[in-house]
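Components:
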Amino acid sequence: MIAETGLAALWLAAALAALQLIAAWAGVAKGEDSLTKLVRPVAVAQGLLVALAFVMLVLLFLRSDMSVALVAQNSHSMKPWLYKFAGTWGNHEGSMLLWVMVMGLAGSGIALFERALARDTHIATLGAQALISLGFYAFLLFASNPFARLDPAAADGQGLNPLLQDPGLAFHPPTLYLGYVGLSVAFSFAVGALVTRQVDAAFARAMRPWVLGAWVLLTLGITAGSYWAYYELGWGGWWFWDPVENASLMPWLAATALLHSVSVLATRDGLRAWTVMLAVVAFSMSMVGTFLVRSGILTSVHAFAVDPRRGTFILVLLALYIGGALALFAVRVGAVREGSRFELVSREAMLVINNLLLTVILGLVLIGTLYPLLTEAMGTKVSVGPPYFNSVAGPLALGLMVVLAAGPVTRWRRDTLRAVVARMAVPLLVGSVALALLVVLAAGRIGILPLLGLVAAALVGVASLAPLWGRNLRRTPLFTYGMVLAHLGCAVSIAGMASESAFSTEKLVAARPGETIETAGWSILFKSVTPVAGPNWTAMEGRFAVSHDGGAAKELRPQARFFSEPPTNTTESALLTRWNGQLYVVLGDSLDDGRWQLRIWWKPFVTLIWGGGGMIGLGGVLAILGRVGRGWLRRRRGRNAEAFA
Amino acid sequence: MTRWLLWAPLALFAIFVALVAGGLLKPDDRQIRSRMVGRELPAFVLPAAASDRVGLSRADMATGKPRLLNIFGSWCVPCAAESPQLVELARAGVQIDGVAIRDARPDVDRFLARWGNPYARIGLDARSALQLAMGSSGVPESFVIDGKGIIRYQHIGDIRAEDIPLIKQKLAEAAQ
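Structure:
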């Protein structure tokens, strides 16, 4: 019964999405007022029904109902409940259902809570939302029904890829996924505004919380994914420029640009066409990312999610939605009036530079990611790696840091270079001191990019606090704190990246148990190697006693794990976190003479990378609370929605 | 802004869709013959790319025994994916020499420690000079070289488990 209820709810939701689209179209294009009134309640009902369908699927997974094909293929009755729960979206059909559910609930949210937007734009936005959802409903219902029964029922399930049975990984994909869907909402707003030609500040303010929310989720998702790759892959690196990593980075870059341009539109009513374009680009990048991951078109370490047929489906949707939106853009944006103008030295100009740099990085990452495909079309297979990405993205990111430092202290509309430099005096001084110190102490020993990274981190770290100087801190709005925190997080993260790349020490040794290895002030006693067994793996576990400068010894236990079903090796690195860095120990292969290959890194301040990522995400949360809270207060007081920065 | 410029994003997007649709729908074409196949290896001398392996030169290649020349990079993911197959070939007695493209010694050491070292010699081709001379434009790629130093077969892309019999067959043909 549960499966049938879910399927019925899904069909009804799809029907309501169709109704929502038709009513919105009739309302906006034909002025049918009676139909227009339908759109909002239908959007709410659609959201509730698709949520019901999703809850039914969760129930099926939690109860391990093996008469449902999807459960039998992706779950197992003996799995811990957390993985049963996460198994709901740990497969293609379930993740598609999660996608439409979030879109449906977002539609309900827009229908219920959006008040400031012009009515026609509001209705057109809900229509666009329904149109996007319909593609996914069609695919779910006609080609990948998550509720399909298995007759006869399976005795038990087939389990889940052991590599994915990690608490971090249960929530990392859906976090990114929710970010992607959030960008689809921004896309709907952009399409709605293009349809009604009302690209204005009210549109930007309506769209902003969704962009912020999506961006926060993408930031946290990428940060968590990077940490997972760092400790699980055992390569000692935190970012590999793998196609799948790039697939999540590209929407983030676009969302970051959009976040800043939407500020210009909401505050100063400028950059109208550009903001709409970015909203389209951001969602395109989400779909391109999903497509690259799912289609298996690029070789990647993340090859577990691959199915070419699904790739074709996503590509068709991508072509229809993005192609349609870009055509609409070309036809309509000429009719969008030019927004307000600004001077060459102004906050707007700084944000434009920010947008240009982000867009160029995005373009270069996209080209690097797709380049193998391009050359394959000409008959050769190549792989593009970190040498390319680091050398193109690094310098541009440094440029971005400079704009980031200066932007928040530059006035809207018009400022002078001299005034900006004067306000930047303290950060510039700190940056110069950092530069001088590094040149004197470390020149020649560290690369130019890490050196400039550390200088930029010092500069931005101080400059990010500048918007708070001389202000009444209790009256400073929450979203300003959010911005300050996010920018400070950038400085912290850059400092971690630069420090990791400049000061890491690495030791590759072959050692016997009983030997002691000395590196970077650490004394590492290799005590023993013992076999251990887990629920579905066996491992060789190394035991190490590590101490720093004769301090108290701590034990580290890295493992080399062997999964039998399917046969897979994984390394479980052992980490010792101190305030000033991490010691990272990996147990490698055993050699014939009884020695073991060991890889040991000391990575000073490496944790700042993810700490900074967390700060950026938290800054985004504060900004949402600040914006939404202020909007809510203003409506309660019944005041006019104009004029605040 | 001129009107036609507004259509530029759509045009770029169309190119993208055509490109990936082509990649998605095209049948697998893993066996393209390069123009270098059948010719002699170009002259080269490469320094060592790893701490515990010597470098590679043209003179090392014409020893009367067929061998596999594998072009790889420690920064390349498909190269890591093919390493189990190379290790298996090396265990089966195949002589494999490596050329690391645009690489650095610590990175190569790390790569070999992580993925295993099937190579007898590894040369460092820091500027892709040999790679270009071989008519290879990407990594990974593998060439079957016969005992006289003539290129007999080119394998583009990573060697997968199902390619191993083919590679062995080409090596056997090169031995005749």
